[in-house]
Specification:
five-stranded mixed beta sheet; single chain; 22% helix; globular; alpha/beta; 129 residues; disordered C terminus
Length: 129
């Protein structure tokens, strides 16, 4: 099974990102091979659709679970459509910490999104009419 963790940095000692679609990195743990991999989130600075693009990338990587801080509705439902389980980690934890929590069955699977539409928008995310 492959588990994706949204990460603020490029290592297992980095903190879990508080947002999914706008996280700079995905740390991928393959529990069969006990290996960690690192993938840059190419859509993290996209003006729109970062969550959906990130969900597609996680699906393309073959992940069956995601651990993150917050996930908005568009990304959440895209992940659910791809049959990827979504878990929240709490804030201030490292990638290593949440993977340990996952293995020990200490994380709860999300049943609803934790963010709102457009949560975590980057530059220019606020509309001005």
């Amino acid at each position: 099974m492959k588990i994706c963790v949204s990460s603020s940095g490029p290592s297992e000692n980095s903190q879990v990102s508080p947002t999914f679609g706008r996280c700079p990195y995905f740390v991928i743990f393959d529990d069969k091979e006990e290996k960690l991999g690192l993938v840059k989130n190419e859509s993290w600075q996209a003006p729109r659709g970062a969550g959906i693009a990130a969900a597609q990338r996680v699906s393309d990587l073959g992940c069956q679970a995601l651990i993150t801080g917050n996930v908005g509705p568009n990304a959440f439902y895209a992940l659910k459509a791809a049959r990827i389980k979504v878990f929240t980690s709490g804030f201030g934890k490292t990638v290593r910490d949440v993977l340990k929590d996952y293995k020990e069955d200490k994380l709860s699977e999300l049943q609803v999104p934790t963010g709102r539409f457009g949560f975590g928008r980057g530059k220019g995310g606020r509309r001005r009419w």
